[in-house]
Specification:
14 helices, mainly alpha, globular
Length: about 350
Amino acid sequence: MAMAVILLRIGPKWHPNLARMDWGIDFWVLIGGFAFLIYGYMVLTTGLRLQLTALTDVYDLRESFGGRASGDRVVGYLVPVLRNVINPLLIARGIGARRFLPLAAGSLGQLVIYASTGHKSVLFSVPAIIGLAMLFRLYRNRPPGVAVLVAVATTSLLALVLDRITGSLLWTSLLSRRMMIVPGALTAAYVAVFGNRPRQNFADVIPFVDDPYTATSPVNIVGAEFVGNINTAANVNLFGHGYLNFGYLGMFIEGLVLVVLLIIANGATRGLPVMTSCAIFFVPSISFVSASVFTTALTHGFLAAVVVSLIAPSTGWLGNSPTRGMAKLNKRTALRRKVHRRGAGRVK
């Protein structure tokens, strides 16, 4: 990660020649129409549920949804775009521009996705994005790094307090263990398990490369070694995945690909408010803690976030929509003319 940060600071930059159009409502009609198509496709294939399931009972629901979606790869690409990019985008638009409709549409959309798929991260993305947007509003679109660190620490402390109140480990498991502790532990686990085993050589990315793990997936091998259950899928981050494929060289390769993706993301968001850029890439970026750079880019919405960033308008995110902006401009112009006429009358 240190290498990635350094290369981002001193490495090449991508400056696409973007002429952002303030096409306002047309962009949101496009986003809303695409979201409507995804919901419709889910109704026809996997179905939609409107009944929320308790956080402790989602595993059966997740397995059921996975079984229904296993025969349709399109669902595997479309649903992450909806839950990781479109709905968070609507929530950020609602908070930033103080508009209730996109905030409600994005939040309710995430609830429907959670009720249908059982993915708990979808449910917690709503308060996370709202908190992120509020943090940017509090610091006028430029929160310092210390504020972000304090927000993360406060969230971990809040999870601990909630566990003490409820007498469980649910909240620390969701907000601290899965996001910060387990990813690091699984990286070490992959190094320990596959140190003397054959390398996968990115066979899960390159089709014509022989895969030595066709019988049993590496995620299940690690699950069996460390949990004692071969049905446990120990999904690892980009560094663990890199080690599985090419050892420490594989870690370096995935780190370089991460740098390329971040350079592309920086270029695609030029001209957008920082809060908007962070909201668009917030959920896809979290996927790096439990997936490779290739999986995150293709099936967790990172490349979809790039496309949305490239076509997004530059205004309308922070209460500065073109209509409001023109209204304020016309009001200021009329006021100047009125003052000018009064001054001219006094001179006479």
